[in-house]
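Sample A.
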Amino acid sequence: MRIIRTGLWVILLVVLILFSVNNWTTVTVKIWEGLLWETKLPALVILSFFVGWLPTWLVHLAGKWRLKRRISALEAASRQASAALTTTQLEKAQVDGAAQSGETPPALD
């Protein structure tokens, strides 16, 4: 998977370099009335990409952080629940489960 990801990044970089070489022209961006920004076209495209990518990436990180916290909480609750069961409680649960299903309960030693 890492090879595929690296390959995609290399392809993206090559495309970006080719675009930059072929479109190295100055463009004027009108921000507000009387405020003009002159920059090269590739710089404008790269900046626009990162401005659009950054919020999506931050939302992804927040969701990943939230899920890690939730998994940690569930794992902790699971550890506490399993540590609370003793062998006597497990044997009683087996007997009760067998009695409800109509089977003969397992022999207790």
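Sample B.
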Amino acid sequence: MSTTTFKTNPQGQVGRSVSRVESHAKVTGRADYTHNLVLPRMLTGKIFRSTVAHGHIRAIDTSAAAQLPGVHAVVTGQDILRIIPDPYYGPAFHDQPILALGKVHYVGEPVAVVLADDPHIAEEACALIMVDYEELPAVFDEVEAGKSEVIVHERLKPAGTFPDLKHLVGRTHTNVALDFHLKRGDVDKAFAEADHVFEHTFRTQQVMHTPMEPMVSIAEPGHQQITIHTASQSPSFVRIEIARLLGWQEN
């Protein structure tokens, strides 16, 4: 066996310690975050979210919230429809309404938004919103969802971003968002000739990337344009979807 050793050049790139550009600002508390941005006459929005996993929305009562001093507006899905006739978005599927329309699909789905002078008033107003749900059977397990009669979305609407989803346009009565079939060689023969065949079921806990910055966005309207300050990791996608929903040009 032979071994090859490379000598590192002290003046070169290999072996050189490289600090993250923003590391010093973050650890010293000087980094700018969207959450800290304050604009003149800025309103704070707080989201009222669904408390049921699956259900029809019978009625939404926002009257008490709207009358609270300091509240400028309470917006529901019906208000959105007056501006955006098809208010569904998403990177892979256009299956997420800006605010729930007719039904809710999961606990935490946005149902209404309060715009107020400060976050405390907005939170207080959210607590005054009343929603009457007709609860529907729900599915809570991804394996069960694959064969369940409980359907989350009545029709699949691929966004067009991913070519391998285009064949799913219009598919109904399914919770399967992607199917991919690959066959190569004689599978049965390979199993029969194998010395050992292992078959197991693996499960893992839920995982979420948790950045230091809170999930927050600020919209700053201007003359024939809007500037969006967002904590999103995909600013280009945000621009594309906002422009598409509003019928505006991206540039």
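B remarks: DSSP finds seven helices and ten strands in the chain. The longest helix spans residues 235-246.
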